[in-house]
Specification:
Layout (H helix, E strand, L loop, with lengths): L2 H10 L4 H17 L7 E5 L7 H4 L4 E5 L3 H11 L19 E7 L8 H6 L5 E12 L7 H5 L8 H10 L2 E9 L4 H14 L11 H12 L15 E8 L3
Parallel strand pairs: 1-2, 1-3, 3-4
Antiparallel strand pairs: 4-6, 5-6
Helix pairs in contact: 2-9
Length: 244
C-alpha cells in the first residue's frame, strides 16, 4: 500500500465509518464463530496502523506483524510493544504453534501467491487454533482503489474457499459482508472507471455522511457469523486446519 494511504489511515481510522463499523462486525464474528480459551493468544498479520488491535485485545493477548515501517511504528505505539517485521509466507520471527487465532484482515489480496501465504499459517497455530480472514469481493469491482492499494486480485466466496482448501484448511463459515452499501459502492466503482479516477475510500466524509454510512454498515452486525449474506463488498471466512 502507498505510504500516503497508511498516513491517511492513521489519521482517520478511529472515526472513519468503514473502520469503526468493520471492527464491530469482526468482533461479533469472532465472538460467534471462534471458540477461544480464557488466556487466548492472537496474532494479526498485516496490522497496518494497528487500528484493530484494541478490538482484538478483548479476546486475549495480541501480537502483530506489519511490513511497512511507518505504519508499524504507529501500530507499536498502540500495542505498547514491538510489532514484528516479517513477510508471508515465511513470517520469519513469528513463533511456532503459539496462537489460538490468526487474523488477516484484507491482507492476502496484497500477496502475489495467496495459497502459499495461507499454507504458512499452519505452523503458527496451536492445536485447535484457527484463522479469520477478510478479502475484497468481485474482480469486476476492480478499480483505481485496488491499484493504489497494490492488490493482486479480488475474490468471490468460491475463490476464497478454493484457496483455503488448497492451503490445507476447511472453511467452517464464509460470507459476504458490507452488503447493504453494496449497490452504492458498485455504482461508485463503475463511475470511477468511466472517470478514470481513484475511489480510494479512506477520506473522512463530512460528519453527517460519516454517521449515516456507519449506521447503515452497522446494521449488518446481527448477521455476522450467523447468516451468510449473498453478496457484498467484502468476504469474511473462518478457516480451520484440516485434520490429517
Amino acid at each position: 500500500m502507498d505510504v500516503s494511504l497508511h498516513r491517511q489511515m492513521a489519521r482517520t481510522d478511529e472515526v472513519h465509518w468503514w473502520y469503526r463499523a468493520r471492527r464491530a462486525i469482526l468482533a461479533d464474528f469472532i465472538t460467534r464463530r471462534v471458540e477461544l480459551p480464557a488466556a487466548a493468544r492472537l496474532i494479526e498479520i498485516g496490522t497496518g496502523t494497528g487500528h484493530n488491535l484494541g478490538m482484538l485485545s478483548r479476546f486475549g493477548q495480541v501480537d502483530a506483524v506489519e511490513l511497512e515501517a511507518e505504519s508499524r511504528a504507529v501500530a507499536q505505539q498502540r500495542l505498547g510493544r514491538p510489532v514484528i517485521d516479517a513477510a508471508m509466507p515465511d513470517l520469519e520471527g513469528v513463533p511456532d504453534r503459539a496462537y489460538d487465532l490468526a487474523c488477516l484482515f484484507d491482507v492476502i489480496e496484497h500477496v502475489e501467491h495467496d495459497i502459499p501465504a495461507l499454507s504458512g499459517l499452519h505452523r503458527l497455530l496451536k492445536p485447535g487454533g484457527t484463522v479469520v480472514v477478510t478479502v475484497p469481493a468481485y474482480q469486476w469491482l476492480w478499480s483505481e482503489h485496488d491499484e493504489v492499494n497494490q492488490h493482486f486480485r479480488r475474490y468471490t466466496r468460491r475463490r476464497l474457499i478454493d484457496a483455503a482448501n488448497a492451503a490445507g484448511f476447511d472453511v467452517s463459515f464464509a460470507s459476504y459482508f458490507n452488503t447493504f452499501l453494496f449497490p452504492a459502492v458498485a455504482v461508485a466503482r463503475i463511475a470511477s472507471h468511466a472517470k478514470k479516477g481513484a475511489a480510494v475510500g479512506t477520506e473522512l466524509p463530512r460528519p453527517s455522511i460519516n454517521r449515516l454510512l456507519h449506521f447503515i454498515f452497522s446494521l449488518e452486525r446481527p448477521f455476522a457469523g450467523r447468516l451468510p449474506l449473498p453478496f457484498g463488498v467484502s468476504i469474511v471466512a473462518h478457516l480451520v486446519p484440516r485434520q490429517a
